[in-house]
Amino acid sequence: MISEFQCPCHGTMRGYVGDQYKTSRVIFYPGAQYEGNWKSSHMCAQLADGIPLFNAIHPNAVAVFLFDQSSNHKAYPEDALLAQNMNLCAIEVKDSDSGQGKFCDSSFYNKKYRKYFIGLCGILQQRSIYRNEAERYSLKRSCNNVATADSRSYTIHIMERQPDFANQKSALEEIVEGSGHKFELYPKYHCECNWIERYWGAAKKEA
């Protein structure tokens, strides 16, 4: 499998970044006996190498990185603000417990015990939202008394509507915009807009 970034003027980008020769093309061997499946982490690593290459070829230029609607391209970073990944009640965060995921820097920890994530109920109370909106769904103030799965779902929906959660960016978008460039997704169901279709069309003429 080949994955590469192309620009209109250079096609596949090649050049030196510092004293290392780089290319925007990655050859990946999928399959259980080889390199497994192409994942968002592979795309992020390729992008992290591709941006410095673009900067070297086009100094002082701002790129627009275009991606299709693949789930890999819309995947969130490991420490993303995703309410569905958060516990309802307070929980101890253990660095050795990989099953709990990662937490980004935030005020979602108990101030006295930094190893305790305060939970969705704690965040709602912290933001003075719990009393106003959560009571519409008959949620009790004490999270220990919330027993049904539906109540937990309501809490998640409330949290997902908060600006910082609703505006959570994908992993690729964070990398691109963090480097001073622009990130865009091709519209769904319009493959004619996708640059790769033109690339394959030209390749077929040469085949």
Automatic annotation (TrEMBL):
<protein>
    <recommendedName>
        <fullName>DDE-1 domain-containing protein</fullName>
    </recommendedName>
</protein>
